[in-house]
Amino acid sequence: MDTDRKDIHNSDIPVLCRSCDARHKGMCGALDSAELVALSRHTRIVRHAAGDELAAESEPTESYANVMRGVVKLTKVLEDGRQQIVGLQFAPDFLGRLFARESAVTAEAASEVDLCRVPKGALERLVAANPRLEHRLMQQTLRELDEAREWMVTLGRKTAAEKVASFLYLIATHLDPSADANAKGRKFDLPLTRGDIADFLGLTLETVSRQLSRLRADKVIAITAVTRVEVADLERLRKRCG
Amino acid sequence: MDTDRKDIHNSDIPVLCRSCDARHKGMCGALDSAELVALSRHTRIVRHAAGDELAAESEPTESYANVMRGVVKLTKVLEDGRQQIVGLQFAPDFLGRLFARESAVTAEAASEVDLCRVPKGALERLVAANPRLEHRLMQQTLRELDEAREWMVTLGRKTAAEKVASFLYLIATHLDPSADANAKGRKFDLPLTRGDIADFLGLTLETVSRQLSRLRADKVIAITAVTRVEVADLERLRKRCG
DNA sequence: CGCGGTGTTGATCGTAATCAACGGCTGTGG
DNA sequence: CCACAGCCGTTGATTACGATCAACACCGCG
Question: What are the pLDDT digits (tens) for B134-175?
Protein backbone atom coordinates (compact mmCIF):
# COMPACT_ATOMS: atom_id res chain seq x y z
CA MET A 1 0.00 0.00 0.00
CA ASP A 2 2.79 2.33 0.91
CA THR A 3 4.75 1.95 -2.31
CA ASP A 4 5.75 4.78 -4.56
CA ARG A 5 5.80 3.77 -8.19
CA LYS A 6 8.32 6.44 -9.03
CA ASP A 7 11.10 4.67 -7.16
CA ILE A 8 10.98 0.97 -6.49
CA HIS A 9 13.65 1.31 -3.83
CA ASN A 10 11.84 4.07 -2.03
CA SER A 11 11.26 1.90 0.99
CA ASP A 12 15.00 1.43 1.29
CA ILE A 13 15.90 5.09 1.54
CA PRO A 14 15.69 7.14 4.73
CA VAL A 15 12.34 8.75 5.43
CA LEU A 16 13.78 12.23 5.52
CA CYS A 17 15.42 11.83 2.14
CA ARG A 18 12.25 10.83 0.31
CA SER A 19 10.88 14.32 -0.06
CA CYS A 20 14.24 16.09 -0.14
CA ASP A 21 15.20 17.93 -3.29
CA ALA A 22 18.87 17.10 -2.78
CA ARG A 23 17.93 13.50 -3.45
CA HIS A 24 17.11 14.39 -7.04
CA LYS A 25 18.58 17.73 -7.97
CA GLY A 26 21.30 18.00 -5.33
CA MET A 27 24.37 16.05 -4.37
CA CYS A 28 22.48 13.04 -2.99
CA GLY A 29 21.47 12.10 -6.51
CA ALA A 30 24.94 10.61 -6.83
CA LEU A 31 24.24 8.09 -4.06
CA ASP A 32 22.53 4.71 -4.25
CA SER A 33 20.11 3.69 -1.53
CA ALA A 34 22.75 1.84 0.49
CA GLU A 35 25.05 4.86 0.49
CA LEU A 36 22.13 7.10 1.36
CA VAL A 37 21.29 4.95 4.36
CA ALA A 38 24.93 4.96 5.45
CA LEU A 39 25.19 8.72 5.09
CA SER A 40 21.92 9.39 6.84
CA ARG A 41 23.32 7.82 9.99
CA HIS A 42 25.60 10.84 10.22
CA THR A 43 23.24 13.60 9.13
CA ARG A 44 21.19 15.85 11.33
CA ILE A 45 18.39 18.19 10.30
CA VAL A 46 18.70 21.57 11.97
CA ARG A 47 16.50 24.63 11.77
CA HIS A 48 17.95 28.12 11.99
CA ALA A 49 16.21 31.45 12.42
CA ALA A 50 16.86 34.32 10.02
CA GLY A 51 20.07 36.06 11.00
CA ASP A 52 21.77 32.99 12.53
CA GLU A 53 25.42 32.63 11.62
CA LEU A 54 26.01 29.18 10.10
CA ALA A 55 29.77 29.45 9.50
CA ALA A 56 32.29 32.23 10.06
CA GLU A 57 35.01 33.58 7.81
CA SER A 58 38.43 32.09 8.65
CA GLU A 59 36.95 29.84 11.28
CA PRO A 60 37.46 26.08 11.03
CA THR A 61 34.44 24.28 9.64
CA GLU A 62 33.47 20.98 11.14
CA SER A 63 30.52 20.17 8.96
CA TYR A 64 29.00 20.54 5.52
CA ALA A 65 25.29 20.86 4.82
CA ASN A 66 22.58 20.81 2.23
CA VAL A 67 20.09 23.66 2.19
CA MET A 68 16.64 22.04 2.41
CA ARG A 69 14.55 25.18 2.78
CA GLY A 70 15.18 28.91 2.86
CA VAL A 71 18.00 31.12 1.65
CA VAL A 72 21.58 31.35 2.91
CA LYS A 73 23.79 34.35 2.17
CA LEU A 74 27.57 34.12 1.88
CA THR A 75 29.38 37.30 2.84
CA LYS A 76 32.88 38.75 3.10
CA VAL A 77 33.87 41.85 5.06
CA LEU A 78 36.74 44.34 4.92
CA GLU A 79 38.51 45.35 8.13
CA ASP A 80 36.59 48.60 8.33
CA GLY A 81 33.24 46.84 8.15
CA ARG A 82 32.33 47.25 4.50
CA GLN A 83 30.44 44.13 3.55
CA GLN A 84 29.77 42.28 0.31
CA ILE A 85 27.47 39.34 -0.27
CA VAL A 86 29.35 36.97 -2.57
CA GLY A 87 26.73 34.28 -3.02
CA LEU A 88 23.19 33.18 -2.26
CA GLN A 89 22.35 29.51 -1.73
CA PHE A 90 18.90 28.09 -2.30
CA ALA A 91 17.56 24.57 -1.75
CA PRO A 92 18.97 22.07 -2.62
CA ASP A 93 22.41 23.70 -2.78
CA PHE A 94 25.41 22.25 -1.03
CA LEU A 95 26.92 24.47 1.67
CA GLY A 96 30.62 24.53 2.49
CA ARG A 97 33.90 24.45 0.63
CA LEU A 98 34.98 20.86 0.13
CA PHE A 99 38.44 19.99 1.53
CA ALA A 100 38.94 23.47 2.99
CA ARG A 101 40.29 23.78 6.51
CA GLU A 102 38.46 26.97 7.17
CA SER A 103 35.67 28.86 5.52
CA ALA A 104 36.62 31.72 3.18
CA VAL A 105 33.22 33.30 3.74
CA THR A 106 30.64 33.88 6.44
CA ALA A 107 27.42 31.93 5.92
CA GLU A 108 24.29 33.42 7.42
CA ALA A 109 20.63 32.42 7.30
CA ALA A 110 18.83 35.09 5.26
CA SER A 111 15.43 33.61 6.02
CA GLU A 112 14.40 30.77 8.31
CA VAL A 113 16.44 27.84 7.03
CA ASP A 114 16.46 24.05 7.33
CA LEU A 115 19.82 22.39 6.86
CA CYS A 116 20.82 18.77 6.55
CA ARG A 117 24.21 18.79 8.28
CA VAL A 118 26.94 16.20 7.62
CA PRO A 119 30.14 16.01 9.67
CA LYS A 120 33.19 17.03 7.64
CA GLY A 121 35.01 13.71 7.93
CA ALA A 122 31.98 11.59 7.06
CA LEU A 123 31.35 13.43 3.82
CA GLU A 124 35.00 13.53 2.83
CA ARG A 125 35.29 9.76 3.29
CA LEU A 126 32.22 9.29 1.14
CA VAL A 127 33.62 11.60 -1.54
CA ALA A 128 36.91 9.69 -1.55
CA ALA A 129 35.04 6.40 -1.94
CA ASN A 130 32.56 7.58 -4.55
CA PRO A 131 33.83 9.58 -7.53
CA ARG A 132 30.28 10.16 -8.72
CA LEU A 133 29.66 12.25 -5.62
CA GLU A 134 32.69 14.42 -6.30
CA HIS A 135 31.48 14.73 -9.86
CA ARG A 136 28.14 16.07 -8.64
CA LEU A 137 29.81 18.53 -6.34
CA MET A 138 32.10 19.56 -9.19
CA GLN A 139 29.04 20.35 -11.27
CA GLN A 140 27.62 22.55 -8.53
CA THR A 141 30.96 24.27 -8.00
CA LEU A 142 31.17 25.03 -11.72
CA ARG A 143 27.65 26.43 -11.61
CA GLU A 144 28.57 28.63 -8.65
CA LEU A 145 31.64 29.85 -10.52
CA ASP A 146 29.47 30.75 -13.51
CA GLU A 147 27.10 32.64 -11.24
CA ALA A 148 29.95 34.45 -9.50
CA ARG A 149 31.35 35.57 -12.85
CA GLU A 150 27.95 36.65 -14.09
CA TRP A 151 27.62 38.69 -10.92
CA MET A 152 31.04 40.29 -11.41
CA VAL A 153 29.68 41.86 -14.59
CA THR A 154 26.75 43.24 -12.61
CA LEU A 155 29.01 44.62 -9.87
CA GLY A 156 31.60 46.08 -12.19
CA ARG A 157 29.68 47.39 -15.15
CA LYS A 158 26.00 47.97 -14.40
CA THR A 159 24.25 51.11 -13.15
CA ALA A 160 22.31 51.14 -9.88
CA ALA A 161 19.02 50.77 -11.77
CA GLU A 162 20.34 47.79 -13.73
CA LYS A 163 21.76 46.19 -10.60
CA VAL A 164 18.44 46.29 -8.76
CA ALA A 165 16.58 44.95 -11.80
CA SER A 166 19.16 42.18 -12.12
CA PHE A 167 18.71 41.25 -8.48
CA LEU A 168 14.94 41.04 -8.81
CA TYR A 169 15.32 38.97 -11.95
CA LEU A 170 17.69 36.62 -10.18
CA ILE A 171 15.32 36.13 -7.27
CA ALA A 172 12.27 35.79 -9.51
CA THR A 173 13.93 33.03 -11.52
CA HIS A 174 15.43 31.23 -8.50
CA LEU A 175 12.69 30.96 -5.91
CA ASP A 176 9.33 31.38 -7.52
CA PRO A 177 7.11 29.05 -5.52
CA SER A 178 4.76 28.36 -8.39
CA ALA A 179 7.84 27.29 -10.38
CA ASP A 180 5.99 27.54 -13.66
CA ALA A 181 8.96 28.23 -15.89
CA ASN A 182 7.04 29.64 -18.82
CA ALA A 183 4.67 31.83 -16.85
CA LYS A 184 4.88 35.45 -17.93
CA GLY A 185 4.99 36.93 -14.43
CA ARG A 186 6.14 36.04 -10.92
CA LYS A 187 5.22 36.83 -7.31
CA PHE A 188 7.63 36.28 -4.47
CA ASP A 189 8.87 37.39 -1.08
CA LEU A 190 12.26 39.05 -0.99
CA PRO A 191 14.50 36.90 1.20
CA LEU A 192 16.74 39.90 1.94
CA THR A 193 16.30 43.27 3.63
CA ARG A 194 17.10 46.48 1.69
CA GLY A 195 20.43 46.58 3.46
CA ASP A 196 21.24 43.01 2.42
CA ILE A 197 20.30 43.75 -1.17
CA ALA A 198 22.63 46.75 -1.03
CA ASP A 199 25.45 44.50 0.22
CA PHE A 200 24.74 42.12 -2.62
CA LEU A 201 24.79 44.85 -5.26
CA GLY A 202 27.58 47.04 -3.95
CA LEU A 203 25.18 49.93 -3.30
CA THR A 204 23.77 51.76 -0.27
CA LEU A 205 20.36 50.83 1.09
CA GLU A 206 19.02 54.27 0.19
CA THR A 207 19.92 53.75 -3.45
CA VAL A 208 18.28 50.32 -3.45
CA SER A 209 15.13 51.80 -1.97
CA ARG A 210 15.05 54.60 -4.53
CA GLN A 211 15.53 52.23 -7.45
CA LEU A 212 12.80 49.92 -6.20
CA SER A 213 10.47 52.92 -5.93
CA ARG A 214 11.42 53.89 -9.45
CA LEU A 215 10.66 50.42 -10.83
CA ARG A 216 7.31 50.56 -9.05
CA ALA A 217 6.57 54.03 -10.42
CA ASP A 218 7.44 52.71 -13.89
CA LYS A 219 4.99 49.82 -13.34
CA VAL A 220 7.68 47.17 -13.90
CA ILE A 221 6.98 45.75 -10.45
CA ALA A 222 4.34 46.09 -7.76
CA ILE A 223 5.35 46.14 -4.09
CA THR A 224 2.34 44.83 -2.17
CA ALA A 225 4.19 44.64 1.15
CA VAL A 226 7.74 45.57 2.11
CA THR A 227 9.00 42.09 1.28
CA ARG A 228 6.38 41.19 -1.33
CA VAL A 229 7.10 41.84 -4.98
CA GLU A 230 5.01 41.07 -8.05
CA VAL A 231 6.44 41.10 -11.53
CA ALA A 232 3.73 41.21 -14.16
CA ASP A 233 6.03 40.77 -17.14
CA LEU A 234 9.37 39.09 -16.53
CA GLU A 235 10.58 40.05 -19.96
CA ARG A 236 10.10 43.75 -19.26
CA LEU A 237 12.15 43.34 -16.11
CA ARG A 238 14.88 41.55 -18.02
CA LYS A 239 15.12 44.46 -20.44
CA ARG A 240 16.13 46.65 -17.51
CA CYS A 241 19.04 44.42 -16.56
CA GLY A 242 21.43 46.04 -19.08
CA MET B 1 74.09 10.52 -17.82
CA ASP B 2 70.76 11.95 -18.77
CA THR B 3 68.93 10.92 -15.63
CA ASP B 4 67.10 13.28 -13.31
CA ARG B 5 67.24 12.17 -9.74
CA LYS B 6 64.03 13.97 -8.91
CA ASP B 7 61.96 11.54 -10.96
CA ILE B 8 63.18 8.07 -11.75
CA HIS B 9 60.56 7.71 -14.48
CA ASN B 10 61.56 10.89 -16.18
CA SER B 11 62.68 9.05 -19.28
CA ASP B 12 59.18 7.60 -19.58
CA ILE B 13 57.37 10.90 -19.75
CA PRO B 14 57.00 13.01 -22.89
CA VAL B 15 59.80 15.49 -23.51
CA LEU B 16 57.48 18.46 -23.52
CA CYS B 17 56.03 17.53 -20.15
CA ARG B 18 59.37 17.37 -18.35
CA SER B 19 59.75 21.08 -17.89
CA CYS B 20 56.05 21.89 -17.77
CA ASP B 21 54.65 23.36 -14.56
CA ALA B 22 51.34 21.61 -15.11
CA ARG B 23 53.20 18.37 -14.54
CA HIS B 24 53.79 19.36 -10.92
CA LYS B 25 51.49 22.16 -9.89
CA GLY B 26 48.77 21.75 -12.52
CA MET B 27 46.31 19.09 -13.54
CA CYS B 28 48.91 16.71 -15.00
CA GLY B 29 50.16 16.01 -11.50
CA ALA B 30 47.21 13.63 -11.24
CA LEU B 31 48.55 11.46 -14.05
CA ASP B 32 51.11 8.66 -13.95
CA SER B 33 53.70 8.39 -16.70
CA ALA B 34 51.63 5.93 -18.76
CA GLU B 35 48.61 8.25 -18.68
CA LEU B 36 50.81 11.19 -19.50
CA VAL B 37 52.18 9.41 -22.54
CA ALA B 38 48.66 8.47 -23.64
CA LEU B 39 47.39 12.02 -23.17
CA SER B 40 50.39 13.58 -24.93
CA ARG B 41 49.44 11.78 -28.11
CA HIS B 42 46.42 14.09 -28.26
CA THR B 43 47.97 17.33 -27.11
CA ARG B 44 49.36 20.09 -29.23
CA ILE B 45 51.44 23.06 -28.15
CA VAL B 46 50.23 26.27 -29.73
CA ARG B 47 51.55 29.80 -29.45
CA HIS B 48 49.21 32.79 -29.58
CA ALA B 49 50.02 36.47 -29.93
CA ALA B 50 48.66 39.00 -27.47
CA GLY B 51 45.09 39.84 -28.42
CA ASP B 52 44.24 36.48 -30.00
CA GLU B 53 40.83 35.14 -29.10
CA LEU B 54 41.16 31.62 -27.68
CA ALA B 55 37.47 30.88 -27.07
CA ALA B 56 34.32 32.91 -27.57
CA GLU B 57 31.33 33.45 -25.29
CA SER B 58 28.44 31.14 -26.19
CA GLU B 59 30.42 29.42 -28.89
CA PRO B 60 30.93 25.64 -28.71
CA THR B 61 34.34 24.68 -27.35
CA GLU B 62 36.15 21.80 -28.95
CA SER B 63 39.22 21.74 -26.77
CA TYR B 64 40.61 22.41 -23.33
CA ALA B 65 44.11 23.69 -22.61
CA ASN B 66 46.76 24.30 -20.02
CA VAL B 67 48.39 27.69 -19.91
CA MET B 68 52.14 27.05 -20.17
CA ARG B 69 53.32 30.64 -20.44
CA GLY B 70 51.72 34.05 -20.46
CA VAL B 71 48.42 35.41 -19.16
CA VAL B 72 44.91 34.72 -20.42
CA LYS B 73 41.99 37.02 -19.64
CA LEU B 74 38.40 35.79 -19.34
CA THR B 75 35.83 38.41 -20.24
CA LYS B 76 32.08 38.90 -20.48
CA VAL B 77 30.30 41.66 -22.37
CA LEU B 78 26.88 43.29 -22.21
CA GLU B 79 24.90 43.86 -25.40
CA ASP B 80 25.90 47.51 -25.53
CA GLY B 81 29.59 46.69 -25.37
CA ARG B 82 30.38 47.27 -21.71
CA GLN B 83 33.02 44.70 -20.83
CA GLN B 84 34.16 43.05 -17.62
CA ILE B 85 37.16 40.81 -17.09
CA VAL B 86 35.97 37.98 -14.84
CA GLY B 87 39.21 36.07 -14.44
CA LEU B 88 42.90 35.94 -15.23
CA GLN B 89 44.67 32.64 -15.82
CA PHE B 90 48.39 32.17 -15.30
CA ALA B 91 50.60 29.15 -15.95
CA PRO B 92 49.91 26.37 -15.13
CA ASP B 93 46.17 27.01 -14.93
CA PHE B 94 43.65 24.87 -16.73
CA LEU B 95 41.60 26.66 -19.37
CA GLY B 96 38.02 25.77 -20.20
CA ARG B 97 34.88 24.79 -18.34
CA LEU B 98 34.79 21.03 -17.93
CA PHE B 99 31.67 19.30 -19.38
CA ALA B 100 30.26 22.56 -20.75
CA ARG B 101 28.87 22.58 -24.26
CA GLU B 102 29.77 26.16 -24.83
CA SER B 103 31.95 28.68 -23.11
CA ALA B 104 30.30 31.12 -20.71
CA VAL B 105 33.16 33.57 -21.24
CA THR B 106 35.49 34.85 -23.92
CA ALA B 107 39.10 33.80 -23.43
CA GLU B 108 41.73 36.10 -24.91
CA ALA B 109 45.51 36.12 -24.79
CA ALA B 110 46.57 39.11 -22.68
CA SER B 111 50.23 38.61 -23.49
CA GLU B 112 51.94 36.19 -25.85
CA VAL B 113 50.77 32.81 -24.64
CA ASP B 114 51.76 29.15 -25.03
CA LEU B 115 48.95 26.67 -24.61
CA CYS B 116 48.95 22.88 -24.38
CA ARG B 117 45.68 22.06 -26.12
CA VAL B 118 43.73 18.83 -25.52
CA PRO B 119 40.67 17.84 -27.58
CA LYS B 120 37.48 17.98 -25.53
CA GLY B 121 36.61 14.30 -25.91
CA ALA B 122 40.09 13.03 -25.08
CA LEU B 123 40.24 14.90 -21.81
CA GLU B 124 36.70 14.01 -20.82
CA ARG B 125 37.41 10.31 -21.36
CA LEU B 126 40.51 10.63 -19.23
CA VAL B 127 38.55 12.41 -16.50
CA ALA B 128 35.90 9.70 -16.53
CA ALA B 129 38.56 7.03 -16.22
CA ASN B 130 40.66 8.76 -13.59
CA PRO B 131 38.91 10.28 -10.56
CA ARG B 132 42.20 11.77 -9.35
CA LEU B 133 42.22 14.02 -12.39
CA GLU B 134 38.72 15.27 -11.68
CA HIS B 135 39.83 15.82 -8.10
CA ARG B 136 42.70 18.02 -9.29
CA LEU B 137 40.41 19.99 -11.52
CA MET B 138 37.95 20.32 -8.65
CA GLN B 139 40.70 21.86 -6.54
CA GLN B 140 41.47 24.40 -9.23
CA THR B 141 37.79 25.20 -9.72
CA LEU B 142 37.40 25.79 -5.99
CA ARG B 143 40.43 28.08 -6.04
CA GLU B 144 38.94 30.02 -8.95
CA LEU B 145 35.67 30.34 -7.06
CA ASP B 146 37.53 31.71 -4.04
CA GLU B 147 39.32 34.21 -6.25
CA ALA B 148 36.09 35.24 -7.97
CA ARG B 149 34.45 35.89 -4.59
CA GLU B 150 37.45 37.80 -3.33
CA TRP B 151 37.21 39.91 -6.45
CA MET B 152 33.49 40.54 -5.93
CA VAL B 153 34.40 42.37 -2.72
CA THR B 154 36.87 44.49 -4.66
CA LEU B 155 34.32 45.29 -7.37
CA GLY B 156 31.45 45.98 -5.03
CA ARG B 157 32.97 47.70 -2.05
CA LYS B 158 36.36 49.23 -2.77
CA THR B 159 37.23 52.74 -3.95
CA ALA B 160 39.09 53.34 -7.22
CA ALA B 161 42.37 53.81 -5.33
CA GLU B 162 41.89 50.54 -3.43
CA LYS B 163 40.91 48.71 -6.60
CA VAL B 164 44.08 49.69 -8.43
CA ALA B 165 46.23 48.83 -5.42
CA SER B 166 44.47 45.47 -5.16
CA PHE B 167 45.14 44.77 -8.82
CA LEU B 168 48.83 45.55 -8.49
CA TYR B 169 49.02 43.40 -5.39
CA LEU B 170 47.34 40.54 -7.22
CA ILE B 171 49.76 40.76 -10.13
CA ALA B 172 52.78 41.17 -7.90
CA THR B 173 51.92 38.03 -5.96
CA HIS B 174 50.93 35.97 -9.03
CA LEU B 175 53.63 36.48 -11.61
CA ASP B 176 56.77 37.74 -10.00
CA PRO B 177 59.53 36.14 -12.03
CA SER B 178 62.01 36.05 -9.17
CA ALA B 179 59.32 34.13 -7.25
CA ASP B 180 61.03 34.79 -3.96
CA ALA B 181 58.00 34.58 -1.73
CA ASN B 182 59.46 36.41 1.26
CA ALA B 183 61.16 39.20 -0.65
CA LYS B 184 60.02 42.62 0.51
CA GLY B 185 59.50 44.09 -2.94
CA ARG B 186 58.62 43.01 -6.48
CA LYS B 187 59.30 44.08 -10.04
CA PHE B 188 57.11 42.95 -12.91
CA ASP B 189 55.62 43.78 -16.29
CA LEU B 190 51.92 44.49 -16.34
CA PRO B 191 50.31 41.88 -18.58
CA LEU B 192 47.35 44.19 -19.27
CA THR B 193 46.89 47.59 -20.89
CA ARG B 194 45.32 50.42 -18.89
CA GLY B 195 42.04 49.70 -20.66
CA ASP B 196 42.20 46.03 -19.68
CA ILE B 197 42.94 46.92 -16.07
CA ALA B 198 39.90 49.20 -16.17
CA ASP B 199 37.76 46.32 -17.47
CA PHE B 200 39.07 44.15 -14.68
CA LEU B 201 38.32 46.72 -11.97
CA GLY B 202 35.04 48.14 -13.25
CA LEU B 203 36.60 51.58 -13.85
CA THR B 204 37.50 53.74 -16.85
CA LEU B 205 41.01 53.75 -18.21
CA GLU B 206 41.42 57.42 -17.22
CA THR B 207 40.69 56.61 -13.59
CA VAL B 208 43.17 53.72 -13.67
CA SER B 209 45.85 56.01 -15.11
CA ARG B 210 45.18 58.68 -12.49
CA GLN B 211 45.36 56.22 -9.62
CA LEU B 212 48.59 54.73 -10.91
CA SER B 213 50.05 58.24 -11.10
CA ARG B 214 48.89 58.87 -7.57
CA LEU B 215 50.53 55.68 -6.27
CA ARG B 216 53.72 56.72 -8.02
CA ALA B 217 53.52 60.25 -6.57
CA ASP B 218 53.04 58.68 -3.13
CA LYS B 219 56.16 56.54 -3.74
CA VAL B 220 54.26 53.27 -3.25
CA ILE B 221 55.29 52.15 -6.73
CA ALA B 222 57.75 53.22 -9.41
CA ILE B 223 56.75 53.08 -13.07
CA THR B 224 59.99 52.64 -15.04
CA ALA B 225 58.26 52.03 -18.36
CA VAL B 226 54.58 52.02 -19.32
CA THR B 227 54.26 48.31 -18.54
CA ARG B 228 57.03 48.08 -15.96
CA VAL B 229 56.18 48.45 -12.28
CA GLU B 230 58.40 48.19 -9.23
CA VAL B 231 57.03 47.78 -5.76
CA ALA B 232 59.62 48.55 -3.12
CA ASP B 233 57.53 47.45 -0.16
CA LEU B 234 54.74 44.97 -0.81
CA GLU B 235 53.33 45.50 2.64
CA ARG B 236 52.83 49.22 2.02
CA LEU B 237 50.95 48.35 -1.15
CA ARG B 238 48.78 45.87 0.72
CA LYS B 239 47.79 48.56 3.21
CA ARG B 240 46.24 50.47 0.33
CA CYS B 241 44.00 47.58 -0.66
CA GLY B 242 41.28 48.48 1.88
C1' DC C 1 57.31 62.94 -41.28
C1' DG C 2 52.70 62.00 -40.43
C1' DC C 3 49.78 58.51 -38.45
C1' DG C 4 47.50 55.31 -35.18
C1' DG C 5 47.69 53.39 -30.89
C1' DT C 6 48.43 53.96 -25.99
C1' DG C 7 48.85 56.69 -21.94
C1' DT C 8 48.55 61.05 -19.15
C1' DT C 9 46.41 65.06 -17.45
C1' DG C 10 42.82 68.74 -17.13
C1' DA C 11 37.87 70.52 -16.95
C1' DT C 12 33.25 69.53 -16.28
C1' DC C 13 29.27 66.63 -15.38
C1' DG C 14 26.28 63.17 -13.37
C1' DT C 15 25.30 59.24 -10.49
C1' DA C 16 25.28 57.30 -6.31
C1' DA C 17 26.97 58.21 -1.44
C1' DT C 18 26.17 60.70 2.50
C1' DC C 19 23.58 63.25 5.83
C1' DA C 20 19.12 64.01 7.57
C1' DA C 21 14.17 63.81 8.61
C1' DC C 22 10.23 61.18 8.96
C1' DG C 23 6.59 57.28 8.57
C1' DG C 24 5.03 52.69 9.65
C1' DC C 25 5.22 48.49 12.20
C1' DT C 26 6.19 45.56 16.27
C1' DG C 27 7.02 44.55 20.72
C1' DT C 28 7.26 46.18 25.61
C1' DG C 29 5.96 48.09 29.77
C1' DG C 30 3.43 51.53 32.39
C1' DC D 1 -5.04 50.67 26.32
C1' DC D 2 -1.73 53.73 25.01
C1' DA D 3 3.12 55.63 25.09
C1' DC D 4 7.37 54.86 23.46
C1' DA D 5 11.59 52.68 21.71
C1' DG D 6 13.79 50.35 18.09
C1' DC D 7 14.07 48.82 13.58
C1' DC D 8 13.25 49.10 8.80
C1' DG D 9 12.11 51.56 4.86
C1' DT D 10 11.22 55.86 2.18
C1' DT D 11 12.23 60.35 0.60
C1' DG D 12 14.73 64.86 0.33
C1' DA D 13 19.06 67.86 0.22
C1' DT D 14 23.74 68.08 -0.54
C1' DT D 15 28.29 66.25 -1.53
C1' DA D 16 31.91 63.73 -3.69
C1' DC D 17 33.85 60.35 -6.52
C1' DG D 18 34.54 58.57 -10.75
C1' DA D 19 32.74 59.15 -15.69
C1' DT D 20 32.89 61.79 -19.60
C1' DC D 21 34.72 65.03 -22.82
C1' DA D 22 38.88 66.98 -24.48
C1' DA D 23 43.74 68.10 -25.39
C1' DC D 24 48.18 66.56 -25.73
C1' DA D 25 52.61 63.59 -25.08
C1' DC D 26 55.03 59.56 -26.41
C1' DC D 27 56.46 55.78 -29.26
C1' DG D 28 56.93 52.62 -32.95
C1' DC D 29 56.19 52.31 -37.83
C1' DG D 30 55.15 52.87 -42.75
Answer: 999 999 999 999 999 999 999 999 999 999 999 999 999 987
- The pLDDT assigned to A2 comes to 47
Whether the CB of A166 is less than 7 Å away from nucleic strand C comes out as: no
With CB atoms and an 8 Å threshold, state whether B99 touches A145. Answer: no
Q: Give bridge partners of residue A44 from the DSSP assignment.
A: A117
Instruction: For B217-238, give the DSSP string.
Output: HTTSEEEEETTEEEES-HHHHH
Question: Nearest CB to B131: which of A131, A137, A156?
Answer: A131
Predicted TM-score (pTM) of the model is: 0.93
Q: Distance (Å, rounded) from C-alpha A54 to C-alpha A63?
A: 10
The answer to whether residues A168 and A200 touch, using CB atoms and an 8 Å cutoff, is no
Do the Cβ atoms of A150 and B78 come within 8 Å?
A: no
pLDDT digits (tens, 9 = 90+) for A177-218: 666 777 788 999 999 999 999 999 999 999 999 999 999 999
Chain B nearest CA to A188, separation (Å) = 26
Domains of chain A: 3-140 (2.60.120.10), 158-239 (1.10.10.10)
A-contacting residues in B 197-236 (Cβ below 8 Å): 201-202
Please give the Cα distance from B70 to B112 (Å, whole number): 6
Q: Which nucleotides of D are covered by protein (CB under 7 A)?
A: 8-13, 17-22
Please state, in angstroms and rounded to a whole number, the distance separating the CA atoms of residues A236 and A231: 9
Closest nt to B201 (CA→C1')?
A: D18
Q: Give the tens place of pLDDT for each residue, A138-153.
A: 999 999 999 999 999 9
Whether the CB of A203 is less than 7 Å away from nucleic strand D comes out as no
